[in-house]
Amino acid sequence: MKRNIQVLLLLFTGVGLLHISLLTDLYLRYVRPGLRPALIASGVLLIVLGAVSAARDGFPFNRPRTDHDHGHGGHQGGGHQGHGHDHSQGPRIAWLLYVPALTILFLAPPALGSYTAARDEAKAKAPTAGDSLFPALPQSGIVELSLNDFSSRAVWDTDGTLRGHTVRLTGFVTPGRHGTWYVSRLAISCCAADATVRKVRVHGATPPPADAWVTVTGTWHPTGKVGTDDASPALDATTVKRVPAPKDPYNDAVATRPGR
């Protein structure tokens, strides 16, 4: 039984990895796009290892036991009769190892969302010496910004380049305290385990359901003293529109350009 678990677990896990990385884009819920080749290679390797193990053991997996399989206890003293015990029997709890493998294959968990964003404190990236001056925004039209860019400008841009501009932000809804809510994004360096939060408080609009993806259009709402940690990113919303979730939920990169 224990051998069966090992072989099938390799096969299921390998098929699951290929399912989310080769046949679909589900892997983007967990890792950066650049790791796709590594996931595909890992899936192929696990399937090959499982197939080799299965072929070595023969089919069906539980081979008929021979006299040799009964151990050496049959012709030795009673003190060694324990050698006839079937050591292939593993703990029944080992079957639980199938749960994560089958989950990846049939029910891929969603990307991180409002639960994570609500429990982590967002920190706007402070400009380095080379980034001390934020580029000017287009003079006309709605400017589409990433949450990271908007947050950095709202907190650290003492020149006030956001002032007088209508901007558009896209992210998922994160409920806050006392009826407040945020449009949020999560950024990752490698995988979902190292996710960091970007969120902007939205004023003047009724919040959609938690985790709903939205595009919020509005103007900068100054909060706190810009250039210090007292400032926080906020937006006075004019419109809130539901949008489909992106394939890559962690990619917040947006070219600064006038919106349509």
How far apart the termini lie comes to: 62 Å
| Overall shape | elongated
Note the main sheet.
5 strands, mixed, barrel
What is the element string, with H for helices and E for strands? HHHHEHEEEEEE
Total helices: the number is 5
CATH architecture of the largest domain: Beta Barrel
Q: Which structural class is indicated by helix and strand composition?
A: alpha+beta
Widest sheet: strand order? Answer: 2-3-4-6-5
Tell me what portion of residues adopts beta-strand conformation: 15-25%
**Structurally, how many domains make up the residues?**
2
Question: What CATH first level of the largest domain would be assigned?
Answer: Mainly Beta
Q: Fraction of residues in helices?
A: 25-40%
CATH topology of the largest domain: OB fold (Dihydrolipoamide Acetyltransferase, E2P)
In the predicted model, the low-confidence regions spanning at least 5 consecutive residues are 64-68, 70-82, 84-89
Integer-rounded radius of gyration: 27 Å
Count of DSSP strands = 7
Mean pLDDT: 82
Keywords: Membrane, Transmembrane, Transmembrane helix
Protein name: DUF1980 domain-containing protein
Pfam family, one: DUF1980_C
Organism: Streptomyces violaceusniger (strain Tu 4113)
